[in-house]
Amino acid sequence: MAIYLTKESKVLVQGMTGAEGMKHTRRMLAAGTDVVGGVNPRKAGRTVDFDHRTVPVFGSVREGIEHTGADVTVVFVPPAFAEAAVVEAADAGIGLAVVITEGIPVHDSVALTAHARAKGTRVIGPNCPGLITPGQSNAGIIPPDITKPGRIGLVSKSGTLTYQLMYELRDVGFSTCVGIGGDPVVGTSHIDCLAAFEDDPDTELIVLIGEIGGDAEERAAAHIRAHVTKPVVAYIAGFTAPEGRTMGHAGAIVSGSSGTARAKKEALESAGVRVGSTPTETARHVLEALDALDARAGAAQDGAARDGARA
Amino acid sequence: MDLYEHQARELFKEHGIVVPRAEVTDSPERAREIARALGGRAVVKAQVKTGGRGKAGGVRLAADPAEAEEAARHILGMDIKGHPVGTVMLAEPCDIEREFYVSYVLDRASGGFLAIASAEGGMEIEEVAARRPEAVARIPVDPATGVHTATAVRIADAAGLPPQTVDTLVRLWKVLVREDALLVEVNPLVRTAEGRIVALDGKVTLDDNARFRQSRWGETRQEADDSLEARAGAKGLNYVKLDGEVGVIGNGAGLVMSTLDVVAGCGARPANFLDIGGGASARVMADGLSVVLSDPDVRSVLVNVFGGITACDAVADGIVRALDEVRLTKPLVVRLDGNNAARGRALLDARAHPLVEQATTMDGAARRAARLATAASTAGQAG
After folding, report:
1. Is there a single domain that holds both residue B368 and residue B282?
2. What is the reported pLDDT for A309?
């Protein structure tokens, strides 16, 4: 199954004909993504040849959906046009908009996420690496060849930490990895992904990667305590970040007493989440938790066998 | 980007919010003249981008121009929470009858903006909120409609502000939207004895991402307070100076933050945050390395790259280029994984610089760089 993105997902790329759009469309196709079209009003009617596939360019998202049945769009358009691109996609009824664009003004992010929510479109990002369901589909810029399909679901604010954990746990593999982005306002939260992974039969364990700034991880901890039955392992970046300095991501800033890595770690631990102190230790926690799951499943099976013998 | 009080004051004025007459200077003599022009009495306020100026002695009421000069001399050059005072603003005092608090802030949880208002202004709002949460109104603003008179009336009612403040609430929202601000705050907003509503102090944070459509921000450029940060900024690098001894370079904000933590976990202190970003070229890597190496506090450098879009061979090529441009006198530990890692490692092996070594894991690389830095500092103390 996986969450949000599967082999059946039909993907449009807004901004496909730009340099980044071309490069990553090629990669997405190579990863097995069913890219059914690009969108560019000035190049409507043309086609673009990739290695083994010719992809048509549509004048609008609506036209793309009408011709192909697309249900996902990946947005590579520049920051100044990103809000309009997402509004257009939501108005056309797309189910999922993955916004890779970095540097979108916050007022635009507020407007585009609110509009998409009103139209029933899920936004992932902005300023995110996208999401990948290994072996099935890749919507965004996550490298597809560092892991394989498996039983872990991953949700992360950081692109490179996503890659690091995918690589560390490559022997186990992932159901879906979602990079939600490090901006202060994003369309999909840790909680949204936790809930989706909880409902996904292919996901047995969830990895949550957070960082300093805001209180999303604290809210996720409360959600885990109340609603998540699968084991969760977490990693938080930014223990050494000083107050008042932005660490790369627009949202990664400690202000006053809030947003510290320590507070996030404590909140998660008090919800029963194991928190690693480095990415490698986090991966080790995951392996141990999976062993414990397997041992319990094995014991349950043995028990069932015994009960069967008795009957 | 945070604005100084006097810059926030200018924005307020342009949007029709009443502010006291005021002027900024960096000279005590000029402060005397400004006070004279304001009618003799003046409030002399340090211009720093941090709160708690009053408590630190950065705000003084001067009874006459001579006192204003004396106050300015005292305040200029002060250090307030690590912020040196370069300028003071002299403002016309006003007869305060009541003080309020109003702000619009970004609320990440809802993905929108919140109006926060209280009839108990003039002090730190966090304290009021902690002591008497019911005294602080928090009202979400619908991004589709913004703040018009009806919303402003609701905010004023909820916070117990007088009806005269409604106009200011509407205008303050316009400042937020038109200037692409993440935060606008007035504390205190006052009602004077004559019944006027005046913004006595202001704080504005602008959204750096909106620079492309806010052309006049060129004039209010943020000055970096550290020369290394200025140099890095000029090269377009995402660099923050810290006070340790292990230089850190990596790709992606999350991975670099994580690398700092891992270095700290190994008993050393990171000297900086430097994110070369996604898809970094050899040039960017070379620039980054030269900035980090020119920090005299740095005793070893850790390069931690997980190539996603970034190609590790480009990173390695950047390191090799930097070795040709700057004479390396500090040990460099490099960990490359992901996209084109094997080619990158081979490039560094071929260069075979005696001070460059490679590590195969992030934790191992951090441990090694930390050990090299502490060894260097012990050796330094012994010598």
Report:
1. yes
2. 66
User: Are A237 and B261 within 8 A, CB to CB?
Assistant: yes
Kindly state whether B213 is in contact with chain A, defined as any CB-CB distance less than 8 angstroms: yes
Q: Which residue, of B58, B91, B124, is where some domain finishes?
A: B91
Q: Which of residues 276-315 of B touch A (CB under 8 A)?
A: 278, 306-309
A47–chain B Cβ distance below 8 A for any pair: no
Q: pLDDT (tens digit, 9 = 90+) per residue, B92-113?
A: 999 999 999 999 999 999 999 9
Q: Which of A22, A23, A24, A107 to mutate: most B Cβ within 10 Å?
A: A107
Decide if B9 contacts B202 (C-beta within 8 A).
yes
User: Which residues 1-60 of B are in CB contact (within 8 Å) with A?
Assistant: none
Instruction: Give the per-residue pLDDT at B134.
Output: 87
Same domain, yes or no, for B158 and B55?
no
Residue at token pair 């809030």: A258
Nearest CA in chain A to B308: A143
ipTM score for this prediction: 0.93
Residue B285, judged by CB atoms within 10 A of its CB (0-12, 13-18, 19+), counts as buried
- Taking CA B153 as the corner, what is the angle to CA B151 and CA B158, rounded to the nearest 5 degrees? 95
| Out of B144, B180, B306, closest to residue A164 by CB | B306
State residue B383's pLDDT score: 43
Q: What is the pTM of this model?
A: 0.93
B177 CB neighbours in chain A (<8 A) are: 107
Mean predicted confidence (pLDDT) in B233-256: 93
Number of domains into which chain B is organized:
3
pLDDT at B381 over 60: no
**Which residues form the domain of B48?**
21-91
